[in-house]
Amino acid sequence: MSNEPNYKAELVGVFGHPVAENPTIVMQEAAFRALNLNWRYLTIEVYPQDLADAFKGLRAFNMRGINLTIPHKVEVLKYLDAVAEDAQLMGAVNTVRRDGNRLIGENTDGKGFLRSLRHDAGVEPAGKRVVVLGAGGAARAITVELALAGAAHITVVNRSVERGRELVALLANNTPTTAEFVPWDGPFALPAATDVLVNATSIGLFPNVTEQPDLDYNTILASMTVCDVIPNPPRTPFLAQAEARGATTLDGLGMLVYQGAIGFKMWTGHDAPVDVMRRALAQAFGL
Ligand code: NDP
Q1: Residue 123: per-residue pLDDT
Q2: Which fold does the domain 110-250 belong to in CATH?
């Protein structure tokens, strides 16, 4: 090893608008410190009309990668050299990694959910019957990864009929799973054969912490695994209802940590210190 000084930091970060409240920096920088890596995670405000210039800057600064958040996850596709198959299916990219001079689009949201489902809840998605509430970005990412991992059947329940139908068509036409859409126009009653229920809507997100999805909660059975994507606060009224009925529960903090951990590995090549990242985020959320 050379003793030459090296003052250069490797740069990653997030482009978004609004972006100031995005907490990802907290867990990524904690992970860099834990592994003694001279890397920085920058939280960068990029207005919608400036994304092309932002990508020129990213290339010029030799940044090692970037996260995308609202409103750039779809628009970013224009500025990439290649896109991973799952992200292509979702039509959205939340993580860009470098392969030499090429920028590759990935989506780690659904992968983070699956890792949390397997590691934290001990549930293997293959062969499972899943009900997903919502058809937005989080629901798309989760259902595509569940389908690619061999889920047997996916029911999408959504308020907007068009969005729900579109997601079900995407799953049915591009993955081996069977999928159906149910319009959400009253308390939804779960089929008894449901293995996994996921709230992939924004209902319950801070500051609306007392809100819960419109469900017939008595149809939740102890045999089910009930998951929420809401990371803050992680213990939502929805999960409390499921817990009260004896179901296994999984909060959205795990998904957030794992999607970041997967991005960390893509960027640095190192396994992420997941516990360090989880503690840093929990502290940032005041837990
Ligand atoms: P989108 O805006 O793309 O989608 C929102 C979804 O929630 C839509 O299906 C929408 O239905 C539904 N929805 C919102 N409010 C209501 C309501 N009052 N009643 C019924 N349905 C409702 O958002 P995202 O998918 O990007 O994000 C959803 C949530 O997931 C956010 O809270 C976000 O914080 C969380 N998330 C968590 C991650 C994690 O790592 N834990 C990662 C990514 C997201 P409709 O189509 O009818 O409008």
Answers
A1: 98
A2: Rossmann fold (3.40.50)
